[in-house]
Hints:
Blueprint: E1 2-3, H1 6-26, E2 33-39, H2 43-59, E3 62-68, H3 74-86, E4 92-95, H4 105-111, H5 123-130, H6 139-150, E5 159-163, H7 170-178, E6 187-191, H8 198-203, E7 207-210, E8 228-231, E9 235-238, E10 246-249, H9 254-257, E11 263-264, H10 271-291
Parallel strand pairs: 1-11, 2-3, 2-4, 5-6, 5-7, 7-8, 8-11
Antiparallel strand pairs: 9-10
The chain binds nicotinamide-adenine-dinucleotide (NAD).
Amino acid sequence: MILLDGKKTSADIKEEIALEVSELKNQDKKPPHLAAIIVGNDGASLTYVNAKVKACERVGFESTLIRLTEKTTEEELLNEIAVLNVDNDINGFIVQLPLPDHIDEHKILMAIDPKKDVDGFHPMNVGKLALNLPTFISATPFGIIELLERYHIKTSGKNVVVIGRSHIVGSPMSILLSQKRKIGNATVTLAHSRTQNLETLTKEADIIVAAIGIPEFLKGNMVKKGAIIIDVGITRVADASKKNGFRLVGDVDFNAVKDKVSHITPVPGGVGPMTIAMLLKNTLLAYYRQEN
Ligand code: NAD
């Protein structure tokens, strides 16, 4: 069994980006600049957004973190977005989700200039993805594609089962893998909570992408020998033996499948670390598109 090491791969990508940025600086060009807006004090969101800002600093990007209080109105947030949309110093920006209940997430995502939408959540970018046109592929699916590519996994003609149909992972993943592209050309089944006889489908799958959010959902009897498993799930499970009181568990029963599969992403250290690297990649892409 080969571990698809997202930690190492993301470090490689960040190193490649850092080299590119130092090249730009050597040519007296300004580096790419990513901004992030966060509303409220949610602990997990703050951790994610801080990790993104830190990653920017490490590769030599400029970064701006805009922290707004929980009480920020929808209008105030829309105003912040309008400012970033026209700020020529900012190449890309993200609005950290989830937002407080009184703010309409769809309205906010719609307000972001698609050219700066490095999360790839704007409907225009999602539409371009569906049509296989140049866009910003959202970071998690983009990270999975990159991981498969760097491990030379062949997807063409393979049977893929994607479990979970969220807008940020399952749905784009199923579209990308079915498209005519290097990591693509697969025969994809998109399974979800209403799917019947899921086990029959997964047992036939050459590649399984699990994006459900139910710890250790995919059991050993659900996968065939030699399958490739991408585990997107991250759930915090209480664990008194850990300093922080929890451990991260994926959607795959790792110990039950590990001796059966040919490749698998660990949790943590698989898909998760790829996400930030791909956000940086999208920011670099936005930078080049705006420069040209
Ligand atoms: P979600 O929580 O929005 O939706 C879950 C999906 O699972 C739904 O489409 C639902 O139909 C499907 N589902 C639920 N029960 C099912 C069942 N019994 N059988 C089949 N399908 C079922 O999904 P999400 O936002 O994509 O998150 C999924 C998991 O991935 C979560 O653990 C989340 O934390 C994790 N995640 C990880 C990353 C990362 O960077 N590694 C990024 C995004 C999400």
